[in-house]
Amino acid sequence: MNSYVKWIFVVLLICSLTAFVEKDKPTGGLSEGDVAPDFKIESASNGQPAFKLGNLKGKYVLLSFWASYDAQSRMQNVSLSNVLRSSRNVEMVSVSFDEYQSIFKETVRKDQIVTPTCFVETEGEDSRLFKKYRLNRGFTNYLLDGNGVIIAKNISAADLSAYVSEIG
Question: Which parts of the sequence belong to the Thioredoxin domain (predicted)?
Answer without folding.
Answer: 30-168
